[in-house]
């Protein structure tokens, strides 16, 4: 058995993961990690490259400091929310100075979208006495229309010869959004290119507060379980300023387009359980279940499992399977019927708020060099299968000829390495 | 009390009271890198970010904030 | 709310740890060492291949063995389940002190260790005069003070 190259309590805490003391102590010194995700959606949709770097210093005293840098470059088209139509459709770009046209029968995609995000984080973990660990984190993330800063603290306490760990965490995030062309009025009509526009707010903001309580229990010398309950409260501007809805007649054809509008608060609650077991004195099996619901009417279930087959002393293969199912938000609408936009306060056709199932299938290969430096590659496929929801009854027959629940298919390639001391 | 919370509570109690105490010298397997809860931190971070951007749910095992304009 | 209190009390009751220094007669393997020590105190260190601070403690244990070897016996008790893991560790972290192998944890259980590594200092009669768990470089003076007082 090899010593762990790094057990990165601070990095885990950044995610708010309980750094259970099932974890062994980290090796004092520096550890460096690099990893990259290449994300590619089918049919020329979103393409992303996301490199991450992390440097972690562990001290003899049990204190650790971790600093991370994430870059995220995105290009490609994503659905703008409008429904397909029998004739070509023209949309004004968010700035109001341009337009793009979508062929008849196609799902409208906005390909003017291009973005680079830079994110920094720092996290400090300090033992308080022999049984408690306090972790504080700071992070900031910036893209051209979005700035997010946040801070969090997590305290973990060991009980029962470190067989039980309980942790509590709080995280506060403040975001400022400066949408291209300003933030449109919810459910207001999309103006034509060059048409004078109502004045818009140039800058909007939102606040997110997360709290979580986590409990890890060692069940036997080869198994453990983690249970986490969390609450997340968002306040402020929660809409996507670039998303539209089609307003259609009884024939299902668009009369005009309106900007989406979501509620300005959201309360999410989640329960997460993870079970891990070492099997055949060689392999590690993990299964997790997550239930999430919010006051927008979304309910979701996630099952995730991996089996790490340590087929050699320094090699492993790890198949991964994930199944996800969500119901649509109460205000999710595939399209609005003529006049409906004046009677309701909230509506969104963002496919992410619709009803769908998603499946991820992946395989990871990992190797540890003779010198003890690990690296890995992972290839995954991700598919979303939409279920019909939010179709206005008055236009249901007219819309029936269109594919309102398009599939999303993506390939994810991830690679990473670590070296240290 | 709602049924979900009751289930979680019962489960937690059963876990605490019903399991054997693993002694400090019996933790060789639990100290393995592949037995740490949460798995590989870099992969967990990528996964959280990807699913946050593509689905209505986030968080669960950790904070679900996101810190980006991708949702 | 009441249920959470119940949960909390369950946590705390399973937490009550038994007192550390419960040894009356040392396990047979250590008795042999005590006899061979001929009146010298015995410093017993429990270690495992998977324990990070254990690796850090080895250079210090070697130096204790060299500095106090005439008046003190140093024994490293390995608690790995598989001997091969211990042997691989010893290639990278050579031990210049006596070794015992306790794969079933019998000696470790006798002293009710609270963590890894753990150290137990026995006087010539085999009674525990000092016990400690964990290893940190900044606590070395504390460990050496315990050794010196045992040598008086």
Automatic annotation (TrEMBL), chain A:
It comes from Sinimarinibacterium thermocellulolyticum. This is DUF3570 domain-containing protein. Keywords: Signal. Residues 1-22 form the signal peptide. InterPro entries: DUF3570. Residues 86-99 have a biased composition (Polar residues). It holds the Pfam family DUF3570. Residues 78-99, 179-201 are annotated as: Disordered. The keyword Signal applies. It comes from the Bacteria.
Automatic annotation (TrEMBL), chain B:
InterPro entries: DUF4266. Keywords: Signal. It comes from Sinimarinibacterium thermocellulolyticum. Residues 1-22 form the signal peptide. This is DUF4266 domain-containing protein. Pfam families: DUF4266 (PF14086). Transmembrane segments: none annotated. Residues 22-71 form the DUF4266 domain. PROSITE patterns: PROKAR_LIPOPROTEIN (PS51257). The keyword Amino-acid biosynthesis does not apply. It comes from the Bacteria.
Automatic annotation (TrEMBL), chain C:
Residues 19-152 form the Thioredoxin domain. Residues 1-22 form the signal peptide. Pfam families: Redoxin. Keywords: Signal. It comes from the Bacteria. PANTHER family: CHROMOSOME UNDETERMINED SCAFFOLD_47, WHOLE GENOME SHOTGUN SEQUENCE, THIOL:DISULFIDE INTERCHANGE PROTEIN DSBE. This is TlpA disulfide reductase family protein. It comes from Sinimarinibacterium thermocellulolyticum.
């Amino acid at each position: 058995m090899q010593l762990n190259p790094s057990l990165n309590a601070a990095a885990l805490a950044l995610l708010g993961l309980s750094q259970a003391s099932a974890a062994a102590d980290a090796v004092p010194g520096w550890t460096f990690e690099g990893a990259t995700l290449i994300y590619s959606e089918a049919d020329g949709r979103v393409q992303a490259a996301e490199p991450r770097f992390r440097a972690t210093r562990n001290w003899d005293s049990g204190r650790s400091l971790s600093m991370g840098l994430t870059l995220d470059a995105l290009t490609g088209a994503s659905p703008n929310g409008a429904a397909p139509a029998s004739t070509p459709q023209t949309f004004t770009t968010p700035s109001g100075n341009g337009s793009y046209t979508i062929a008849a029968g196609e799902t409208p995609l906005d390909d003017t979208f291009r973005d680079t995000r830079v994110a920094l984080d720092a996290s400090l973990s300090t033992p308080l006495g022999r049984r408690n660990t306090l972790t504080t984190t700071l992070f900031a993330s910036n893209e051209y229309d979005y700035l997010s800063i946040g801070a969090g603290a997590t305290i973990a306490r060991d009980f029962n010869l470190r067989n039980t760990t309980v942790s509590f965490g709080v995280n506060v995030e403040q975001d400022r959004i400066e949408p291209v062309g300003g933030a449109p009025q919810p459910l207001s009509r999309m103006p034509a290119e060059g048409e004078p526009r109502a004045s818009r707010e140039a800058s909007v903001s939102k606040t997110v507060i997360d709290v979580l309580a986590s409990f890890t229990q060692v069940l036997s010398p080869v198994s453990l379980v983690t249970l986490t309950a969390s609450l997340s409260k968002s306040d402020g501007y929660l809409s996507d300023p670039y998303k539209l809805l089609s307003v259609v007649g009884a024939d299902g054809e668009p009369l005009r387009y309106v900007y989406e509008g979501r509620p300005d608060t959201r309360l999410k609650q989640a329960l997460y359980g993870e079970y891990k077991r070492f099997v055949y004195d060689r392999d590690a099996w993990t299964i997790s279940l997550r239930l999430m619901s919010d006051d927008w009417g979304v309910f979701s279930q996630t099952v995730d499992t991996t089996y790490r087959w340590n087929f050699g002393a320094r090699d492993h293969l790890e198949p991964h399977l994930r199944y996800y199912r969500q119901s649509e938000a109460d205000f999710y609408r595939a399209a609005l019927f003529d006049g409906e936009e004046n009677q309701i306060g909230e509506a969104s056709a963002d496919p992410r708020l619709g009803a769908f199932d998603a499946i991820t299938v992946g395989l990871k290969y990992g190797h540890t060099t003779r010198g003890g430096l690990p690296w890995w590659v992972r290839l995954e496929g991700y598919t979303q299968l939409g279920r019909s929801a939010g179709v206005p009854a008055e236009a249901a027959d007219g819309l029936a000829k269109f594919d309102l629940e398009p599939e999303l298919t993506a390939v994810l390639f991830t690679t990473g390495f670590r070296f240290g001391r | 009390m709602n049924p979900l919370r009751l289930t979680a509570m019962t489960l937690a109690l059963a876990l605490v009271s019903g399991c054997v105490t693993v002694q400090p010298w019996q933790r060789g397997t639990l100290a393995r890198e592949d037995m740490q809860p949460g798995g590989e931190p870099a992969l967990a971070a990528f996964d959280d970010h990807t699913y946050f951007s593509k689905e209505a749910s986030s968080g669960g095992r950790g904070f679900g904030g996101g810190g980006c304009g991708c949702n | 709310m009441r249920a959470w209190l119940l949960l909390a009390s369950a946590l705390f009751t399973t937490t009550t740890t038994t007192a550390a220094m419960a040894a009356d007669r040392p396990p047979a393997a250590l008795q042999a060492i005590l006899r061979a020590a001929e009146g010298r105190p015995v410093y017993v260190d429990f270690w495992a291949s998977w324990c990070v601070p254990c690796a850090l403690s080895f250079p210090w244990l070697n130096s204790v063995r060299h500095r106090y070897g005439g008046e003190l016996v140093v024994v490293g008790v390995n608690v790995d389940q598989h001997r091969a893991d211990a042997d691989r560790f010893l290639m990278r972290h050579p031990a210049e002190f006596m070794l015992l192998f306790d794969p079933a944890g019998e000696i470790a259980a006798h002293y009710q260790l609270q963590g890894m590594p753990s150290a137990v200092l026995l006087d010539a009669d085999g009674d525990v005069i000092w016990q400690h768990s964990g290893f940190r470089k900044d606590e070395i003076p504390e460990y050496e003070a315990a050794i010196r007082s045992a040598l008086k």
